[in-house]
Amino acid sequence: MKVRTKICGLTRREDVTACAEAGVVYIGLNFFAKSPRYVTPAQARMLALEAPVGLAKVGLVVDADDATLDAILDEVPLDMLQLHGHESVERVRWVRARYGLPVMKAVGVSEAADLDALARYAAVADQILVDAKPPKGAILPGGNGVPFDWTLLDGREWATPWMLAGGLTPQNVTEAIKRTGAVQVDTASGVETAPGVKDADLIRAFVEAAERN
Ligand SMILES: O=C(O)c1ccccc1NCC(=O)[C@H](O)[C@H](O)COP(=O)(O)O
């Protein structure tokens, strides 16, 4: 099966073009104000309008309330919402129903016990982002460039589509896919030259390495 790629935290027009040319399936637009990858709704709209048909625009939020989501969705034509905070199962249900968009819930993993939460969210979300738990003291809940122990996923299956994230790079993504059986992979820092600044060659290398399986 052809592996589908997501590049998260785009801030520049040329990065949208690079993703489209490389055959990326999803781009992430980050609305978490503390992130170096943050974009305002106006910037996100400009980037979203640059994306050709077939390149899905995913809006990343962290514990956003309805007013914040309303303001984003009034301005930005998004195809999916990525909830990357401490949103409850009930909140995931609510957001899906209120906005009528598919919801991907991110779950941080560092030990086997974290997988229980994955199963709970898989029952209500359209997709699950299986990400590394942020290292102690990290400011960001994601995008930290740190992989988790992929063997924790051995023998695990979810009926809901899922995506692997956390420290994936052009160098390790082929191995990560082999080890976990992921058919969707996501990276933010792994294709950057500086936080929020993507690199077209790294994006192309990431997609090629992901599709090499
Ligand atoms: O990337 C960020 O700055 C960020 C901030 C707050 C919440 C989530 C964030 N990124 C989430 C992503 O979707 C990343 O792609 C995912 O965590 C993997 O990041 P990385 O380890 O840098 O590839």
UniProtKB/TrEMBL annotation:
<protein>
    <recommendedName>
        <fullName>N-(5'-phosphoribosyl)anthranilate isomerase</fullName>
        <ecNumber>5.3.1.24</ecNumber>
    </recommendedName>
</protein>
<dbReference type="InterPro" id="IPR001240">
    <property type="entry name" value="PRAI_dom"/>
</dbReference>
<dbReference type="Pfam" id="PF00697">
    <property type="entry name" value="PRAI"/>
</dbReference>
<keyword id="KW-0057">Aromatic amino acid biosynthesis</keyword>
<keyword id="KW-0413">Isomerase</keyword>
<dbReference type="InterPro" id="IPR044643">
    <property type="entry name" value="TrpF_fam"/>
</dbReference>
<feature type="domain" description="N-(5'phosphoribosyl) anthranilate isomerase (PRAI)">
    <location>
        <begin position="6"/>
        <end position="208"/>
    </location>
</feature>
<comment type="similarity">
    <text>Belongs to the TrpF family.</text>
</comment>
<comment type="pathway">
    <text>Amino-acid biosynthesis; L-tryptophan biosynthesis; L-tryptophan from chorismate: step 3/5.</text>
</comment>
<dbReference type="GO" id="GO:0000162">
    <property type="term" value="P:L-tryptophan biosynthetic process"/>
</dbReference>
<keyword id="KW-0822">Tryptophan biosynthesis</keyword>
<dbReference type="InterPro" id="IPR011060">
    <property type="entry name" value="RibuloseP-bd_barrel"/>
</dbReference>
<keyword id="KW-0028">Amino-acid biosynthesis</keyword>
<dbReference type="GO" id="GO:0004640">
    <property type="term" value="F:phosphoribosylanthranilate isomerase activity"/>
</dbReference>
<dbReference type="InterPro" id="IPR013785">
    <property type="entry name" value="Aldolase_TIM"/>
</dbReference>
